[in-house]
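Quick one: structure tokens for this chain, please?
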Amino acid sequence: MAIIKCPNCGAKNRIDDRANKLQPVCGRCGKKLSVFARQGGKPLVVTDANFSREVLSSNLPVLVDCWAPWCGPCRAVGPIIDQLAAEAEGRYRVAKLNTDENPRTAGQYKIDAIPTLLVFEQGRLVDRMVGLMPKEAIAKRMARAGVVS
């Protein structure tokens, strides 16, 4: 069982495994709670099998880091992605897609260079960033896409 702090009213809510199938709401104000907050501010690992559910069906904007373990720039951007996930506070989700292990999704989104960061909103791809970028540049692009304020 996890405890999620409501971003609207600050109430602490207990969330159990049913949150994987149902949309949890705050017990005090009724606002929807982010299931991703259960991840403890860490990026969610997405795969070919769960990409549609975790990214395209998300009620929150999603930043997807497309990477591979052998890629030096991918390893360099990893800590930045971790920081963004920790700072998301239920406003958006951060996910990681290993392109070597998930070729179907990588092919679908034409990932031909890594690292590539994809920004989705309401299941629609709204921005693509290719190459190593500083955290400030990523945050600025996400703000321009309307994902963060």
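The chain has two domains: 1-33, 40-144.
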